[in-house]
Specification:
Layout (H helix, E strand, L loop, with lengths): L1 H19 L4 E4 L3 E7 L6 E11 L4 E10 L4 E7 L6 E6 L2 E2 L1
Antiparallel strand pairs: 1-2, 2-5, 3-4, 3-6, 3-7
Length: 97
């Protein structure tokens, strides 16, 4: 019974944080990557961090993302490769606060 109470309390806390945290959406189109952030909160937020693009031939490209998003607003940025190689994978360390 005690376990159930703690589980319910933990799930309520995690649910609250899940709705308060804004995460960027990153889409790999092969020759370019699009980063978009939609702010559904009633306050302005800032997002910043790095994108790590890995090409099919193994080379890597690093890009920096930094934007301020007004409340109920959105932003989109496109990052292109420096070569003709296609992008194999994208990882990021972008955080919004």
């Amino acid at each position: 019974m005690i376990f159930m109470k703690y589980f319910l309390l933990l799930s309520l806390v995690l649910c609250e944080f899940a709705f308060a945290y804004t995460r960027p959406r990153i889409v790999n189109f092969g020759q370019f990557v699009e980063v978009s952030v939609d702010n559904y909160e009633d306050r302005d937020i800032s997002c910043s961090g790095s994108l790590y693009l890995t090409m099919e031939d193994g080379r890597q490209q690093y890009e920096y993302f930094s934007e301020s998003i007004r409340s109920r607003g959105s932003v989109r940025r496109t990052f292109y490769t420096y070569s003709s190689e296609r992008i194999k994978s994208v990882t990021d360390s972008i955080f919004c606060y």
